Amino acid sequence: MSKSVGDIHKRIEQLRTAINKHSYYYHVLDRPEISDGAYDSLLNELRRLEQEYPELITPDSPTQRVGDTPLQGFNKVRHDVPMLSLDNAFDEADVKDFYTKAEELSGENDLQIVVEPKIDGLAISVSYENGVLVRAATRGNGEIGEDVTANIKTIASIPLVLQKPLSVVVRGEVFMPWSSFNEINQKREENNEKLFANPRNAAAGTVRQLDPRIVAQRKLDCFFFNILSLRGEMPKTQMDMLALFKEAGLKVNNDIKLCDTVDEIIAVINDWESKRDNLPYLFDGLVLKVNNKELYDKIGSTSHHPRWATAYKFPAEDAVTRLLDIVINVGRTGVLTPTAILEPVQISGTTVSRATLHNEDYIKQKDIRIGDHVVVRKAGEVIPKIESALTDMREGTEQEYNFPSECPFCGSQVINSVEEVAIRCSNQFCPSVIREKLIHFVSRSAMDITGLGTSQVTAMIEAGLLETPVDIYNLQKDDLLPLERFGEKSVNNLLNAIEQSKHNSLEKLIMALGIRHVGARLSRDLARHFKSLANLQQASLEELLEINDVGEKVAYAIIDFFSSSQAKKLLNDLIDVGVNTGYHDTSFANRQLSLAGKQFVLTGKLTKYTRDTAKELIESLGGTVNSGVSKKTDYLVAGEKAGSKLEKARSLGVKVLTEADFDNLAGEKQ
Asked: Can you give the pLDDT at residue 248?
């Protein structure tokens, strides 16, 4: 029995309602109720019915998110209500000033302030008539924007039909999540296309694409945060407005906080600053708004910005400076790494004069030249890096950088393999390689020889005392005393530390050997599994693959290392001088969980540890290391020249440890 057009229309409406509901649960609430396959099945049925009955297609149907025809251009749109920008606050004093002025202008005390993440994307206004999306426009200059309705309709988190029949104009921020940004840039790199500089530029460029099909592929997202106009009664508070958005199916950021005092606002800012690098989207600060909307007219606005809101901007992590030179370092694996020498510049409260350039391909792809003005970025604890060169500021004197064909330390030819980006020195006896291997061997995460650091190793190499790790165990007092800054007490302490290192558990030795792809955690896993160096040396590919985090690439690297004649000689020589090759199971087990559940932050310069070795020690004892201080931080380990993190820890009541305190807590006091 064939169905009537009325039955078909009823089924189509049923499908649209179900699809809109499940799209809302998936894209807005992040709580899907059905599988992707089931959702696709509903959508496919709707598409089939609409193809058979095109007269039943409506503009708000879920099938109409993506148009088939590229646009010719964007029409200009005048905003009925101007989309004002915000004034900025840069520190605690600015925040207090904003709060005090809002109190004075409103005539109210103890104002509640809503704190919202300031998403770094593209501002839009979206108009709904009786709950149906009818127009979307960019902010433009605040008065006039561009009609981008066709593109905005492709964003799955923006409903085509609201769950309440509102006639409203809402303001939001379209953004590109980091996951989408990384995926797009990977594809662009594979196609030799220019990479997007950051998610903000990617989002803005995507929204202004003339082909909505391209926009749909790029997985943009959107948060809504304000009503520009509403037919009906306006919510009395910002929090009520956000609740209305949720009821209507508009996506809002769930990390919004309501604060009753300035101190609460500052605490929220500190908490956000500590996690700014760990979020799935790019944001550059926080927006502070008076919660009570009925006070907005009394507080007022300037011609540029409202006085009832302000944007707190985090300290800049980007800065522009000049690239003076590029120097090459050769690491323990022979990799040539370029480092940028910069005109010193302040970023995030610290002076930056060097930045990583990664490799030759990185320099070429970004067209970085000596003499360029460059954008330098310093995020969290990450080493500063050059993001881009400002090519429009070139004066004609800039020089392209040619990567050396010979090692700058030993003159040997470099190896440029098609299998990897890295360029390596071909000489395994290169002085720089030997030096870096020895520095790694004695480091805290490896054999942990106190008193034998970079400067001491360098001095011993120059004196002809060290060539291989075995030479460390053959050092004599008379060899060391003639060296500068080697007094009798320090020499005795060093020799004792060398002797003590012979008794380390096996994981220390594995780490010290510098096997490619094998770090501290995997060294522990290998030692725990194989128990002895002899067992590890004889391990087959199948046995190695049984270990967590060991794939074929890592397994072959381990096998290749132990099968080389140089490694066999080194290990035999280390055994001859008395270095332990067994796993101390009991001692590790007793220490493993002593810091379990504790959260640490490291700041300043530590004398006994590098940042990495301190982190490895904490993690080996069950603790966690975070990049920023928050209320959840248990301990801040503060070295020399500790900066803003120390002040933040004190303001939050976080326990501050000196390096000696940390030694005692970790059971490392010798």
From this structure: 94
Residues 6+ positions from 240 with CB-CB distance below 8 Å: none
Return mean pLDDT, the chain: 86
Helix (H) or strand (E) holding 637: strand 635-638
Sign for the CA dihedral angle at 582, 588, 589, 590 comes to positive
Question: What contacts 298, CB < 8 A, 6 or more positions away?
Answer: 105, 106, 107
pLDDT at 99: 93
* 385 catalytic per annotation: no
Q: Where are the beta strands (DSSP E) in 247-403?
A: 257-259, 283-290, 309-313, 318-330, 336-347, 350-356, 369-370, 373-377, 385-389, 399-400
Block residue for tokens 């926080």: 286
E-assigned strands of 378-466?
A: 385-389, 399-400, 414-416, 423-425
* 617 neighbors 596 (Cβ within 8 angstroms): no
Assess whether the region 5-64 and the region 318-400 belong to the same CATH fold.
no
pTM to 2 decimal places = 0.48
Q: Tell me, which fold does domain 431-501 have in CATH? A: DNA polymerase; domain 1 (1.10.150)
Q: Does the 506-587 domain belong in CATH 1.10.150.20? A: yes
Query: Among the options 118, 289, 366, 437, which is catalytic?
Result: 118
Reference 62, options 16, 99, 93, 96; nearest CA is: 16
Pick from 262, 303, 300, 293: nearest CA to 105:
300
